[in-house]
Amino acid sequence: MTDTSEPLTMECPFCGWKSKEGEYQMLLHMETLHAEGESPFLTEQDRTSPQNGTGSTAGNDDDPQYVECPVDGCGEFLLVSQVEYHLELHSEETDVQDLPASSEPIPISEPAPSSSITSSAPGPSSKSSHNHPESTRRSKAISAWKRLLRMPSTHREYVLRRRHNSKTTSGSESNTRGTRLGKKHLGKYAHEDRMPDWLADLLRKKGQVQTAGVVPVLAQLLELSPSTNYAYLCHPCVYHISKLKREGGFCGYRNIQMLSSYIIQTGMQNHEKLGPSIPSIFQIQDFIETAWDNGISAAGRIETGGIRGTRKYIGTPEAVAMFRLLQIAFQAQSFKHKEHAKAEEMLMTAVESYFAEDERAVRRGEGGRVRLTGLPPLYFQHYGHSMTIVGVERLRDGGRVLLVFDPHFKDSYAVTGMVGRTVPHPYPDYALRPYRRGNKYLKEFREFEILR
Asked: Where is the composition biased (Low complexity) (predicted)?
């Protein structure tokens, strides 16, 4: 019998070019026209040709092959190892609000890198946000990347897995102190002198996306969750601050802003030095540069080449410099082990011990499973990204997960609609997924840092 079925059409997530000639043809197109470094499909003459724009810098060991998120308006440059998880969380920004009012159970998990978000959840309602053109474009981009991520590894390696060896990936940042850093630590724009004017204008006019009252909503969801054995949460005043559309990677700044929301609203000692409101990205840059001027963690200026007016990544050392300048009490702690599981266990134990210190924690829910503390959140850093830890959860199966505010993502309507209200949610575990970071996410890393 003749097979008359149409071949699968694949779409390039960079330029939208479509092909029905198979996976290898798509990879050839991407590596020829969109390669980040040296393409295995190009000849030596092609690589050195001026029109290819690679020159002598192609394949620089300092470049860990960042990939731009294909979701329209995100602007984030990601390590290839983080792309699939990142796309799952983008899916949940809109998918959570579409759950029907039903009592069907939702399996507990973080977004699984190996499966679609819709595989373990009910389908969207008839009023799904995916009918909106922007949501449709987003879904197409995510689907295109997921197809690439499911390709046979022999071909996919060329595009998505050209990573540094384990020594480069897991090396301690402390070994680089006092030397000029590059893209591995400072991101795609490590050598940029100034961010584009359009971006500076956007940040000045829009500031940030900030949502108050999310921590109490997490408490409600945890009380309802059949998967929660017990959980701790930070002070309920902490804002979830997330990125603006198209801003790219300012996660370090956004986490400093989340810590600042606690410092200002609780009147912590020396809070007035931050000013009356959450400092902007430019104000944070000024604080850090002033700290360097005063000899506080001054090696940071050598390592970064200066950050004022740029979009270079910042991390724990810059946060430390700022808080030292402002004389705001803090404690930094790092966890490193050659075995991934050991580093994760050390982190989880330290975070749980931190939250358990508050003897005045208010217990809520059946048997007091959810414990609301008055403690600050934690600045949380791993290779390539940082978040704010707002709690920790012990699951009934014995596992532990961090509860985080991730500046990459905004809260879903299903969560913001619960702010200031006490309403039951039919799928608490599903709504909690974007805030949970457990072994599926953390297992790749051998080193973590927190700032409390």
From this structure: 100-128
What are the residue ranges of helices labelled H in 330-438? 340-356, 413-416, 428-432
Say how far apart CA 3 and CA 15 lie, in whole Å: 31
What would the DSSP string read from start to end of 10-41? EE-TTT--EESS-HHHHHHHHHHHS-SS--TT
pLDDT at 367: 86
Alpha carbon distance 399, 302 (integer Å): 42
217 is written with which tokens?
A: 């909503």
Q: Considering only CA atoms, which of 211, 90, 113, 96 is closest in space to residue 160?
A: 113
Q: How far apart are CA 244 and CA 260, in angstroms?
A: 18
The architecture CATH gives domain 173-451: Alpha-Beta Complex (3.90)
Domain-by-domain residue ranges, the chain?
Answer: 173-451
298 Cβ contact list (under 8 Å, min separation 6): 292
At 104-137, the pLDDT tens digits run 444 444 543 332 222 333 333 333 334 455 555 5
